[in-house]
Amino acid sequence: MNITIRQMQKSDVDEVVRLEALSYGEHHWSKESFYNELENNLAHYYCALNDKNTLMGYAGCWHIFEEAHITTLSVNPDFRKMGVAQHLLFAIIDDCYKNKIKYITLEVRESNIPAISLYEKNGFKSIGTRKGYYQDNNENALIMFTENIWYEKFKTLYNNLKASKEPLNQK
Question: Catalytic residue at 35?
Answer without folding.
Answer: no
